[in-house]
Amino acid sequence: MKIPEDLLYTKDHEWLRIEGDTAFIGVTDFAQSELGDVVFIEVETVGEVLEQEEALGTIEAVKTVSDVFMPVAGEVLEFNELVKDTPDLVNKDPYGDGWIVKIKITEPAQLSELMNAENYKAQTGH
Amino acid sequence: MKTTAFTKFHEEMGGKMVEFAGYLMPLQYEGVSVEHETVRKGVGVFDVSHMGEIWVKGPKALGFIQYVTSNDASVLFDGKVQYSCFPNGKGGIVDDLLVYKVNDETYLLVVNASNIEKDWNWLVSHAPKFGLEVGKDLYNASDEIAQLAVQGPLALQAMQKLTDTTVTDMEYYTFKKLDFAGVKDVIFATTGYTGSGGCEIYMSNADAPKIWKAVFEAGAEFGIKPIGLAARDTLRLEMGFCLYGNDICDTTAPIEAGLGWITKFTDSKDFIDKEYNLSLKNGEAKRRLVGFEMIDRGIPRHDYEICDAAGTTIGHVTSGTMGPSIAKAVGMGYVPVSLMKSGSEIYIKVRDKLLKAVVVKMPFYKG
């Protein structure tokens, strides 16, 4: 189970990669493996400012449906066109091309509430 | 939780184990899409030992089966299998099942795991009318029999290696008792729940490990793989096969479920709920189970609402999925009979949005 060192993590298995005052968000390797084959991703929040832990979109695997939540408050800037058309990128490359949205962080203080790789690893037991 | 004779093999092979109908069963191994395609294009193996097996024997066996099932078992010949259901006396269905005719006085009923106890009690309650002795003429062998479904276009060719009896030319829905992988009296049936051909093999629990190993050795050159319950569901749904508990249940009538083809109103056959189902057939039915394909982007799921264009709820989705072989989101559900025709537009409520769908003829997968 891959857990890159340079990302931040939530208890709901999202990851966040900070780039200046923006961040990329996706779901972890553990999450994609639990979900199974992802076949559909819906994000209809582009342009909206969402609270921390608010649902930013939905991932549908063949057999399951799961919401994706905002790790921190922010404005949803972009939905990854690649995963819209090729949802299984979330399975194949969860930390790379399988990113889901890019956000503008509006509450940077909340970043300190997220887990680093070591703590996330301890949580998932992998 | 119950296990099957194959549980340790699933665990060894990396199956993700879940509870299903009181049994510990593999949900998936490599992933549902890969497993689904393995069955569509090659050969895959399902442990279906959780299914129930009930023997009906003696001179009254046929009369009993004719009364408790909707299909006409009198047309069966020795070695023939028939899909049927048990109407429940209240207009619904106790379970759907397969009826195997061994000979005039020996039949095997294969029922769903989740309903074994309910089916057994139901059959026992009707046994006295036909003088069947429970435990003898009516016998529940569910805990003694293991079953494998070997499915896919290469299944029969692969399994032929394990028996001297010719199986590759067997007609659909027939069975033979044969020597298989060195085991005597194995029931080998060309049945299945995938729409991709293949067989279902019944054996004693004691012989099960030996047969599992032989099946995988024989299938190795064909790329045989173990398949989990998740792919079993997507495969059957692409075929429009009903799943008890989803598409049919205690409150759905066979005629409403589109099971008119297994509900026979011949004069020689009286059966439970015959008159009621006949009235539905003759125009009294209000709703009908249909298949539909999504037009808008979205995936229908069990229990989602089916609506008309105005957003009024007119029914519910009973099964839904993205179909791996058809690359479409499809589902089944009950709609008013006015909307049962192919081409009817319906809407599925997905996360509070109405998404357009169209009623289509099943199967969704046309091979």
Describe the structure.
The complex is a heterodimer of chains A (126) and B (367). Chain A is of the alpha+beta class and 126 residues long. Chain A has one domain: RNA polymerase II/Efflux pump adaptor protein, barrel-sandwich hybrid domain (OB fold (Dihydrolipoamide Acetyltransferase, E2P)). Helices cover 19% and strands 35% of the residues of chain A. Chain A is built from four helices and nine strands, in the order βββαβββββααβα. Chain A has helices spanning 29-35, 81-85, 89-92, 117-124, and strands spanning 8-9, 14-19, 22-27, 38-42, 49-50, 55-61, 65-69, 74-79, 101-105. Chain A has a six-stranded antiparallel β-sheet. In chain A, a hairpin with a 2-residue loop joins β2 and β3 (22-27). The longest helix of chain A has 8 residues, at 117-124. Chain A is globular, with a radius of gyration of 13 Å. Chain A starts with 7 loop residues before the first strand and ends with a helix. Chain B is 20% helix and 34% strand. Chain B has a six-stranded mixed β-sheet. In chain B, β5 and β6 (93-103) form a beta hairpin. In chain B, α2 (32-41) crosses α7 (229-238). Chain B contains eight helices and 19 strands. Chain B has helices at 7-12, 32-41, 61-68, 116-126, 155-160, 208-219, 229-238, 274-284; strands at residues 16-20, 23-28, 44-47, 52-57, 80-87, 93-103, 106-111, 138-140, 145-151, 175-180, 183-189, 198-204, 225-226, 287-294, 305-307, 313-323, 328-336, 345-350, 353-360. Chain B has 367 residues and is α+β, with helices and mostly antiparallel strands. Chain B folds into two domains: 1-236, 2-Layer Sandwich (Gyrase A, domain 2), CATH 3.30.1360; 238-360, Elongation Factor Tu (Ef-tu), domain 3 (Beta Barrel), CATH 2.40.30. The A-B interface holds A 36-37, 39-40, 42, 58, 60, 62-63, 65, 91 and B 27-28, 31-33, 230, 233-234, 297-299, 301, 321-322, 324, 329, 351.
